[in-house]
Specification:
227 residues, alpha/beta, Rossmann fold, 2 domains, five-stranded parallel sheet, four-stranded antiparallel sheet
Amino acid sequence: MRILLVEDDLGIARFVKRGLEANGYRVDHAEHGLTGLDMALRGEYHLIILDIMLPGKDGFAICEEVRRNRISTPVLMLTARDTVTDKVTGLDLGADDYLPKPFDFMELAARVRALTRRDRARKSRVIQIDDLEIDTGARVARRAGKELDLSAREYELLEALASHEGQVLTRQAIQDRIWQNSDAVSNVVDAFIRTLRKKVDQDHPIKLIQTIYGLGYSLRPKEPGEA
């Protein structure tokens, strides 16, 4: 599960990031408001943790812009200014919850669990392609009724392809979506596709993961003998 943390206090950012990662979350961090807004608009996150007082663009403006772009990702706002006015402003702009500083990590973790659980239930759907079934709420994939043993990024790659059934996703589009802000090498997508193809298509006569030479990859059924 992927979280965006926008916080300019590096001590708090390290504290939150370390704690969340120890609980199994993937955390991307931005310390500047404009950078955080760009990441929020371009990335796909399950939760945005957003400080209010930020350089470049404050948390209120970021939250407002995120909602204006019809991004429904839950937003948890952090602030040292524990005032009713700030709370009302943040909630009116589309924030889902509000946590004043200083805070105990256990309380933060509980709010993160509640918001991501609510978001999972809201977004949960099942993608069915031939005998491949992907439960996006549970983040589980099955082929012919058998659960596939996928890593977090393998699952994200499979869901990305399945969400664009029959369409071609370029290597760059996949890398931007799955490995945003990482130092992934250029052939990382090809390597993950090879591993994913073994798990999804091996021992099945109908192959689903297709290579579109010179362009990228697509997910669609390919019958035996089909060119």
